[in-house]
Write a structure and sequence with these properties.
Number of helices: 14
Radius of gyration: 28 Å
Bound molecules: beta-D-glucopyranose
Largest sheet: 11 strands, mixed
Helix content: 10-25%
Shape: globular
Structural class: alpha+beta
Length: about 850
């Protein structure tokens, strides 16, 4: 294929989405060609019967829909063609589609329903209601859509078949402010004549346990559902049916379900065919209609949570009559059980991330989350079961009660997370670096579950803002995070204090909304990350007012610009290690006593303030708000000046004298040029004196880039490749298959860290991968040109690494860098740049060159 083709059409970052609420979704595309040098000079987007841009002279790979607003459920078909650098027009792309959701509250005619249940008590688990309703079709159906949601979690089926492969619907929001609904194409499932729609309800975040809160029922006491089915016939007529007083329900085999505690399933009580017309449900209890829910129903706007992989155990060990399954990888999801045995036999599945020395599963770090599934055998031959409404973070499962001796196929690990497209890859000659990368990707995967969470296993699993701010750059290289972050940013905006402070975590219900510095600032950093990746100002339009209000309120509360007031829980450089006096070295006391921030809080908080002010200024520039841009740039400069006056000495020493303080100064560009060299020296001094990193979750992202900028690539590699405590390598040497929450999660001397704060699957320390991609791999997206159309190719081989290959699919397409050192140490590099993009290729010891789309070989 030598021509140019328009491919990869996305509507609001997704492929052919159904149920779109946004009146002006972003329509984007990319070009594909085998030819070098392909660029777009103009485009034309045509939305069938509604809108056409005509020919627009632009290199932009997307445009917001500007036609007449779609009506509820209206379908739009669109296509694109472009003019290339020679002025040749491409063929029209294959058509793509989107379909509007239920745009008006009045579109919802179905009622909220629930099944009268045992009274809610805070600690009494309740069985899951199975609800069903019947309807009859009266002609040939050409299209059928199910719009469904719940307070709690739901799973819908039509005539015995699940309507979709997604999980944990409707996802997590602050249900008092908005509730997501899903739109499913159920056309193939609708039958001629009698049909039955089924819904099973779980407790989920809404009425089960969530976060650190000891009680259940934080949003409400009862799970309830709303579903509306719209059936369109060949003759153009439409039937609308849905949940209502005519529905019936029963409590079936799910005796209890809770996201944190697990699920109890009694197969003897299963309800075969419960959601088909063949089953007579006349004896079932009538459902009751519930009050309307005040919060608006909003269309799900990001990719769904799905089961994405199955992991077979690497070993099964018998211990004291129990069987311990090791999946070889810390995953998030659940297990599929395969069992045959006598009716009533009860199996207990305890999930955990680590083992005690005696080989039993360690659960103390789960805190109050029990993470136990129970299965009671039905006794009817081979039974295969997976839970419906729970989630576990685990590498091991301890199984009790299996009838007989389980084979390895008795349990299969099922990986569950928001199914974002993977956009990055990295491999190199060093297995340790590969493992650091894999551990990071596994942690990102498992902690992105409709919301970016801190951890997946203990009673926490909250959308902590600080953690995702730290990992966002790495995550957005590895995955297409645009829709996911845009959804969560709405949760973040809704969790603000009345005067505009961003929260520590979102979604959230209740008081205490002022997040700490570095956490609250995520409300500013994340929109910029999405903008940098997509080039779409829409995300800034949605967030700008809140971003500006936040920086304004921080400034108002801290008139002398040192950020010490209204700092919430003020976490600082969370979980950093003491900067032991270099003379004392490691003998300076047990390092297990990591403290919550060795970097002074005011140094840390004010640095974040400067960065946020600068980012708001950049957002203002992107939005064409010149006055604001100038105002926030001035504010950022003032904060920077104050930061220097207060915290930086003429010899480059920064108050606290921590690696993080120096790395912040260098990476956030906080010190004047004339001090950079001295500050760099100080950082080098701190790192060389100790030989390891003392950084907490924020500083860890910054030390290697700062050392690299300081000309000490050797030290950066030494830290990356160290296997001594504390280091990434130490965690891997001790079995880590995901990123740990803290450097000292487990040490040879002290064993497990304090159980109150010791997750083995937290992504923050994986933020080093942004540096791994850019510096070991040599591929980065140039953030000064939003939209992923300019790359920086700057591999810096070191640490004995002899080759690396890195890819990233930006909005323009896939770029790759593969480099290799010859036996005599000469570097050769192969670069691929997608159409419409360019790269600065900056190889060690050579003059930087600019290259365009195509393949480029740089010989040794
Ligand atoms: C979480 C962190 C979070 C922190 C606030 C912890 O419990 O796991 O990752 O950012 O609280 O400091």
């Amino acid at each position: 294929m030598t021509g140019v083709h328009v491919v990869g059409l996305l509507c609001d970052h997704r492929v052919d989405p159904l149920g779109v609420d946004a009146p002006a979704p972003l329509l984007s595309w990319r070009l594909e060609s085998d030819r070098a040098g392909v660029a777009q000079t103009a485009y034309e987007v045509e939305v069938d019967g509604l809108w056409s841009t005509g020919r627009v002279e632009s290199a932009g790979l997307g445009v917001r829909y500007g036609g007449p607003p779609l009506a509820s459920r209206q379908r739009a078909t669109w296509r694109v063609r472009v003019w290339d650098e020679a002025g040749t027009v491409t063929p029209w792309s294959e058509p793509a589609e989107w379909e509007a959701g239920m745009l008006d509250r009045d579109d919802w005619t179905a009622s909220w329903i629930r099944l009268p249940a045992p009274p809610f008590t805070r600690d009494q688990y309740r069985p899951a209601p199975f609800l069903r309703g019947s309807f009859t079709t009266r002609g040939r159906v050409v299209r059928a859509r199910l719009y469904a949601t719940a307070l709690g979690l739901y799973r819908a089926s039509l005539n015995g078949a699940r309507v979709s492969d997604d999980e944990l619907r409707p996802g997590w929001t602050d249900y008092s402010q908005r509730v997501q609904y899903q739109t499913y194409d159920v056309t193939p499932l609708v039958r001629q004549g009698d049909n039955v729609l089924g819904i099973v309800l779980g407790e989920g975040w809404y009425c089960g346990h969530f976060g650190v809160f000891p009680q259940r029922g934080n949003w409400g006491p009862h799970a309830q559902a709303r579903a509306q089915l719209v059936v369109e016939y060949e003759d153009g007529s439409v039937d609308v049916t849905g949940t209502g007083a005519d529905w019936r329900g029963w409590f079936g085999p799910i005796l209890a379900s809770d996201l944190l505690q697990g699920e109890i399933y009694d197969a003897r009580q299963s309800l075969p065919g419960w959601d088909t017309p063949d089953r007579d449900a006349s004896a079932w209890q009538p459902a009751v209609t519930a009050d309307d829910v005040e919060a608006p129903l909003v269309a799900q706007r990001c990719q769904p949570v799905r089961r994405t992989a199955a992991v077979v155990p690497v070993s099964v060990t018998e211990l004291f009559g129990k069987y311990v399954f090791d999946f070889g990888q810390n995953i998030v999801g659940w297990v599929r059980l395969r069992v045959s045995g006598p009716a009533g036999a009860e199996l207990v599945l305890q999930h955990g991330e680590a083992l005690h020395p005696d080989g039993t599963v360690y659960t103390a770090n789960l805190r109050a989350a029990t993470s136990v599934d129970r299965y009671i055998v039905g006794g009817d031959g081979e039974e295969v079961w997976e839970p419906s409404f729970t989630l576990h973070g685990f590498r091991y499962v301890e199984m009790t009660g299996f009838p007989g001796v389980p084979g390895p196929d008795a349990l299969t690990g099922i990986v569950v997370h928001t199914d974002l497209p993977e956009t990055g890859s990295f491999t190199c000659s060093n297995e340790l670096v590969n493992r650091i990368h894999r551990n990071t990707v596994w942690s990102i995967r498992g902690n992105f579950v409709d919301v970016p969470t801190d951890c997946p296993q203990r009673n926490e699993r909250l959308g902590w803002t600080g953690d995702v701010r730290i990992i966002s750059r790495t995550a957005s290289f590895s995955f297409d995070t645009a829709a996911f972050f845009a959804k969560w940013l709405a949760d973040v905006r809704l969790a603000r204090s009345p005067d505009g402070f961003y929260p520590d975590f979102a979604p959230w219900t209740g008081p205490m909304r002022e997040g700490g510095p570095g956490w609250s600032d995520a409300g500013v950093f994340l929109p910029m990350d999405v903008y940098n990746r997509t080039g779409d100002v829409g995300v800034l339009e949605e967030n700008y007012e809140a971003m500006a209000q936040f920086v304004d309120v921080v400034a108002k509360e801290n008139p002398d610009l040192v950020r010490v007031n209204r700092v919430g829980m003020n976490w600082g450089d969370w979980l950093s290690l003491p900067e032991t006096d270099p003379d004392q070295g490691r003998q300076g006391g047990p390092i297990i006593d990591s403290v919550h921030s060795t970097t002074p809080k005011d140094v840390f908080a004010t640095a974040m303030f400067a960065k946020s002010a600068q980012l708001v200024g950049r957002a203002a520039t992107a939005l064409g708000r010149e006055d604001d841009a100038a105002r926030y740039a001035r504010l950022a400069a003032d904060i920077r000046r104050v930061w220097n006056e207060r915290f930086v000495s003429d010899d480059g020493r920064i108050e606290g004298n921590t690696q993080t303080a120096y790395a912040l100064a260098l990476c956030f560009d906080l010190v004047p040029d004339e001090l950079r060299a001295l500050v760099s020296e100080r950082l080098v001094e701190r790192v060389s004196a100790l030989g390891y990193m003392t950084t907490g979750n924020t500083g860890t992202e910054l030390v290697l880039p700062a050392l690299t900028a300081a000309g000490r690539l050797d030290l950066a590699y030494a830290l990356l490749l160290s296997e001594d405590y504390p280091s990434w390598g130490y965690t891997i040497r001790n079995g880590a298959t995901t990123m740990w929450e803290r450097w000292d999660g487990w040490t040879e001397e002290h064993g497990f860290q304090d159980v109150r704060m010791n997750s083995f699957n937290h992504y923050s320390l994986g933020s080093v991968c942004a540096w791994v991609y850019a510096t070991v791999g040599g591929l980065a997206v140039d953030e000064s040109v939003p939209g992923g159309t300019r790359f920086v190719v700057r591999p810096r081989p070191g640490g004995g690494v002899t080759w690396a290959k890195t890819t990233h699919r930006s909005r323009a397409g896939e770029a790759s860098v593969a480099w290799e050192l010859s036996a005599d140490g000469n570097l050769s590099v192969d670069v691929v740049i997608p159409p419409c993009a360019s790269a600065l290729v900056d190889l060690p010891g050579r003059d930087p060159v600019a290259v365009g789309p195509g393949r480029h070989h740089f010989p040794a």
